[in-house]
């Protein structure tokens, strides 16, 4: 039990680093969705499937929610 404080700090540091990376990833994804013109996803056969305006809007909303959830979360 002597090292509980050190272990707890290490875990908190790891959690913070992971959250920072997830936040950065979410912000990058959102930026690409906002700035992108012809967005697509790769289909099962490897072909590009271009997204409709509605699909892009939906993904933008989801990406913004991810930013709010990950970047603005206290834990």
What distinguishing features does this structure have?
single chain; 2 strands; 8% strand; elongated
Spatial strand arrangement across the major sheet: 1-2
How far apart lie the N and C ends? 25 Å
Overall pLDDT level: 88
**Quaternary structure state of the chains depicted:** single chain
* Largest sheet features: 2 strands, antiparallel
User: What is the overall shape?
Assistant: elongated
Q: Which residue ranges are poorly predicted, with pLDDT under 50 across at least 5 consecutive positions?
A: none
Helix content: 55-70%
Task: Give a verbal description of the structure.
- With 75 residues, this protein is mainly alpha-helical.
- The protein has two helices and two strands; from the N terminus they run H-E-E-H.
- The chain has helices at 4-35, 53-71; strands at 40-42, 48-50.
- The protein has a two-stranded antiparallel ribbon.
- The longest helix has 32 residues, at 4-35.
């Amino acid at each position: 039990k002597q090292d509980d404080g050190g272990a707890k700090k290490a875990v908190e540091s790891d959690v913070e680093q992971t959250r920072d990376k997830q936040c950065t990833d979410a912000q990058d994804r959102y930026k690409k969705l906002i700035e992108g013109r012809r967005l697509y996803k790769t289909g099962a056969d490897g072909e590009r499937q271009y997204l409709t305006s509605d699909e892009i809007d939906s993904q933008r909303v989801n990406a913004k929610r991810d930013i709010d959830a990950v970047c603005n979360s206290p834990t």
